Amino acid sequence: METDVDGIVERLNEADGQGLATAGAVLTIDLGAVRENYRRLKARLGGTRCAGVVKADGYGLGAAVIARALQKEGCDSFFVANASEGIDLRAALGTGPAIHVLNGLPPGAEGEAAAAGLIPVANSTDQLAAWRATARRLGRKLPVAVQVDSGMSRLGMPPVEVEAVAADAEAFTGLDLVLVMSHLACADEPDHAANRAQLAAFERLRRLLPAAPASLANSSGIFLGPEWHFDLARPGAALYGINPTPDADNPMHPVVRLEAKVIQARTIGAGVGIGYGHTAIADGPLRVATISLGYADGWRRRAAAFAHFKDVRLPFIGRVSMDSIILDVSDLPEGSLKAGDMVEMIGPSQTLDEVARYSGTIAYEVLTSLGHRFHRRYLGA
Ligand SMILES: *Cc1c(COP(=O)(O)O)cnc(C)c1O
């Protein structure tokens, strides 16, 4: 157990009124598993360095705590999406680790980003020019990463801009180009033709720029093979236990467990309507239990999933409410489930990827949607 981290988090939970006794649900985050996943990715990467992507508050699990756990594995390079996230992460980690801002800087954010020692990813010649002007104004050299668009059309300099930068002898005046990167659109589909096309485009575009370390692979990109690894990999999802190889068994260790408390359990009579809209009607006497987790906790209203108690599968019945879900508990021995018992929502009986499937979405969205009124428990760093 990592007492410093656990202590901090326990205190935060209690201060928020989200102590174990009073919270409706408990989210357990296994930092030991995050570290194990980092080691598994490192092993696959050989000599390639491995960063940690901790945008969106570490995919909802706590950017600062996750980053500190990764630092213990030697990770000294992090990626966030927005400058505001970078500033928070810098405050948590102190000086030292590299913090890259994937979206680059919105106009006007350059001063604060420079003060926090962030590395913006310049996605356009405009972003690059604004950062160059900031370096001139501050009278010191600033680090910069450049993203080239190798074929996703989301972020990064299109080939014509890369060529313009290549032709401009002053493009990097006052700047230190520390990384050239791009992002894969279809890395989770290993046979997709876009993977090799993007690889070729990235090879060509990066050669137009001054020599710098290169980065292309996200989690799934790491599993495409060594050609996609370059100097630095940028996994997020796989660190958090999401399967980076959706067509095969999950090579990662699960990180999250979500349990919800039973509020009440009872038997309802035949013909009685269940939940909002009476979308279900009991066709005979039916044993039900209501748990304190709902769509306000990020559990999709339309998700037709299950809860589990001692490995027994308990189907949802009726609609998911804001703060509660009704379960059909007929398959449990009578009286075995009581108020205060915890049922598993995400864990060994029902994986994160399965919950995503039941919810009609991807595990990334399930994780980043998880709400803010759980009691959070961090295990084993
Ligand atoms: C989110 C993101 C990553 C991490 O992707 P995962 O699929 O979560 O590993 C890497 N690079 C960029 C540019 C991203 O936006």
UniProtKB/TrEMBL annotation:
The record's annotation in InterPro entries points to:
Ala_racemase, Ala_racemase/Decarboxylase_C, Ala_racemase_C, Ala_racemase_N, Ala_racemase_pyridoxalP-BS, PLP-binding_barrel
- The name on file for this protein is Alanine racemase
Q: Where is the Alanine racemase C-terminal domain?
A: 255-379
> Which superkingdom?
Bacteria
Q: Which reaction is this enzyme known to catalyze?
A: L-alanine = D-alanine
Q: To which protein family does this belong?
A: Belongs to the alanine racemase family.
Q: Which CDD domains match?
A: PLPDE_III_AR
Gene Ontology molecular function: any one: alanine racemase activity
